[in-house]
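Fold it.
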Amino acid sequence: MQDRNFDDIADKFAQNIYGTTKGRIRQAILWQELDALLPTLPARPLHIVDVGGGQGQIACGLAARGHQVLLCDISGEMLQRARANAEQQKVLANMQFKQISAQQLAQHLDKPADLVLFHAVLEWVAAPEEILAVLYNALAPGGILSLMFYNLHGLILQNLAHGNFGWLESGMKKRKKRTLSPDYPRDPQQVYQWLQACGFVIERRAGIRVFHDYMHDKQQRIDEFDRVLAMETQYCRQEPFISLGRYIHVTARKPAQKDRL
């Protein structure tokens, strides 16, 4: 068991994640969640760490708002793309880039972070509890972890809807290694338990793509994208839709010192 490096499929990653309506919805809901949590942090340029930040779309957006962002990734190819993205957006002055794993984070931080991003990485790592503890320790008291993970329930629902019963019965084992289908889809309740065991307090949850992927008319996703996004926004923060999202975003705070007394 080992963590996934995307050097070999960087182009496919860019096209499939960011070049589709599902990628646009993912980015839109993430920004809604970030816009909700940022005002609860100190009113100054924040120290932000984007762990497994890939091509840096979110990191560059935060840097453009004046925050200082350290983007870490184990993929050298992803870091090159992130740096090019930052240069194009003229935010290089607010960013740093390091080719390290999440496990190495503590060795490369000058000070605790106000905000740690860990988006679509937990489903690729072999030791999730260990890494969540590393991220907890990387935060300043009162700091926030923005966690987005691939939802096991959403994967099961999709395959039930498609009639892939044999694959479900076989334990949903991956057939190919060079694929964007995550290695370790996560059970939400287990993730919440891991977070709480670390000491995090869960403040918000949102499902990401709670119905988009199940729409029969794929052209409608494109032709009526604004309407689809509006409906995703309407339902994504209420059950049972949160627990059926293809991804789930969690806002988890490290208690301030006084809260731990």
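The longest strand covers residues 139-150.
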